[in-house]
């Protein structure tokens, strides 16, 4: 195992430990969410500043618009997560499932992409393959068997469809941030997480998957 892969595995274990602590202890979740949100917003704004670097009026307006929209979105997302139990007790479980699907989609895409390779999915991210996208869905389905009894609300088929929707949304979120990084001409949003890049590199799919997942669970 090379040093870069060791860093990636070690950082992944720490992030999983943090996720478990956030789920079990509300105080840890609140503090961690605020810190991660601030860092993610700084990294996002760094990308936007690189995409619109000069002092033209159009660029300044676009930077400010992106700044306001991203800050509003992340603030609402954090507020919703921190107050989620006051809306409906089971929403915390729906949140955990949505985050888990996003994580498994990322892992599945990486594993299948490395093993099967094949045709590229899009020019936006050269490392993304069709096999990787399929792997993202397959790995996401593994979670159904662990969560189904706790998430029974309608039918097995409904849970499968919701899982597909969350996984696809997570993949699209990943591609969106990849597009921004490509336009900004950077590999990672920062180097805060050894082997992973920045926080935004790790939560790009998650921040889009959470609203979709919780919304679909609430409706069905």
List keywords for this structure.
220 residues, mainly alpha
Polypeptide structure, described:
Helix 5 (91-116) crosses helix 7. The mean pLDDT is 83. The protein has 220 residues and is mainly α. It has helices at 3-24, 26-51, 57-82, 84-87, 91-116, 130-151, 156-184, 199-203, 206-219.
Largest sheet report? none
How many β-strand runs? 0
Q: H/E order of the elements? A: HHHHHHHHH
The number of helical segments is 9
Radius of gyration from CA coordinates = 18 Å
Produce a short descriptive summary.
Helix content is about 80%, strand content about 0%. The protein is mostly helical and about 220 residues long.
Topology of this structure?
Elements: H1 3-24, H2 26-51, H3 57-82, H4 84-87, H5 91-116, H6 130-151, H7 156-184, H8 199-203, H9 206-219
Helix pairs in contact: 1-2, 2-3, 2-7, 5-6, 5-7, 5-9, 6-7, 7-9
């Amino acid at each position: 195992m090379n040093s870069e892969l060791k860093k990636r595995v070690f950082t992944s274990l720490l992030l999983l430990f943090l996720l478990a602590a956030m789920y079990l202890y509300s105080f840890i979740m609140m503090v961690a969410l605020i810190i991660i949100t601030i860092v993610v917003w700084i990294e996002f704004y760094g990308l936007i500043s690189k995409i619109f670097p000069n002092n033209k009026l159009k660029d300044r307006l676009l930077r400010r618009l992106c700044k306001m929209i991203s800050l509003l979105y992340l603030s609402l997302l954090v507020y919703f997560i921190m107050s989620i139990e006051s809306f409906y007790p089971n929403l915390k479980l729906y949140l955990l499932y949505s985050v888990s699907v996003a994580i498994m989609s990322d892992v599945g895409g990486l594993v299948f992409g490395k093993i099967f390779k094949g045709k590229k999915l899009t020019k936006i991210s050269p490392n993304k393959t069709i096999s990787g996208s399929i792997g993202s869905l397959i790995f996401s389905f593994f979670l159904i068997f662990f969560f189904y009894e706790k998430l029974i609300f309608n039918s097995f088929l409904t849970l499968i469809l919701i899982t597909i929707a969350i996984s696809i949304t997570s993949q699209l979120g990943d591609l969106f941030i990849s597009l921004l990084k490509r336009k900004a001409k950077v590999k990672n949003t920062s180097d805060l997480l050894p082997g992973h890049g920045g926080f935004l590199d790790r939560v790009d799919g998650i921040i889009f998957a959470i609203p979709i997942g919780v919304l679909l669970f609430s409706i069905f």
